[in-house]
From TrEMBL:
This is Retinol dehydrogenase 16. Coiled coil: none annotated. It comes from Monodelphis domestica. Pfam families: adh_short (PF00106). Residues 1-21 are annotated as: Disordered. The keyword Secreted does not apply.
Amino acid sequence: MVLCAPQSPVSESGPRPSPRPRPCWGLSSISRVLGTAASGPFAACLPPLPPTPRLLCGSAESPGVVRGRGSSYMWLYLAVLVGLYFLFRWLRERQVVSNLGDKYVFITGCDSGFGNLLAKQLDLRGLRVLAACLSEEGAQRLRRATSERVETVILDVTKTESITAAAQWVKERVGNKGLWGLVNNAGISMPTAPNDWLTKEDFLRVINVNLIGLIEVTLSLLSLVRKAKGRIVNVSSIMGRLSLFGGGYCISKYGVEAFSDSLRRELYHSGVRIAMIEPGFFKTNITNLELFKENFQSLWEQLDPEVRQHYGQKFFDAYMRSTVDMQALCKEDLSLVTNCMQHALTSRHPRSRYSAGWDAKLFYLPLSYLPTALADFLIMWNYPKPSPTR
């Protein structure tokens, strides 16, 4: 848009001499504004904009030509600014914390999956790993696969006495150094089914592990993390952004997101950094196909006859097929997730959220930002339907 100075009025005694035309706001003025806004670490790197004509009132040059040329230059300038921002962020996030060999990290859920792989990765980086396993067999397997820097403890996150004992064990090992990292990774996904197939106990079984246990472990070790000005990494899920199925899993992950957000703000001035990991679908025990089938078959057989009649056998068969399709989408490369965890623990400038996996980045996360009606349509258009609505 080209803004021109107002025309001089003509007096009754005759026309007054026209004042010198004032320059209009053109691209050079806009570039000065953008240049001021862009002042920072990369201000000197910004390319100067080419000189552009300043449109004078009554100029013979077409306003459309100047406007089109100015818009092109402005978009180019903005593209350069965006590129420099991402370059700056990339360089900033590559800065690594010093003295990693002196730092302790406590990880829950290390029997298998993400926790097991993360313990091995951090061991290779030289950190001192305190790995919590649910079973002694899992702890032994991990110790055999790692160095003496990895120590294990048995932990059931649903039992307060087990958490208290593990917290005391951690305190004895870290001493006055404090705990640099806490990774809340332990979790389960089943029972999972339509909500009216489940009981209160089915919901609590998942929520007690994924949310209540996570909160209790965090609170029991928070003073040690605060002493080290360390990191808390909570494993959520992309299902903490978008609820796709019934049961306690999505509910618990929404709770993890809320707890992490509140904790991050409460610890804002303490030097403690909070990060959430939001994986898509990966091949772990949480997405085990056989366990899903057993869970679904068992719940179906226990259903009230009226509820079973409402859904119908076709719904059950279609739902079972959908679990097979879901398994085909699960990725085997767990390092896509554990690399995010490792970055959150070792980078001087960790992110608050990490979306792990291309399905999370390119499908589920964008889907969560869509208007509710549109997101519901896209999710449900191929979803099995109960028999009365077919």
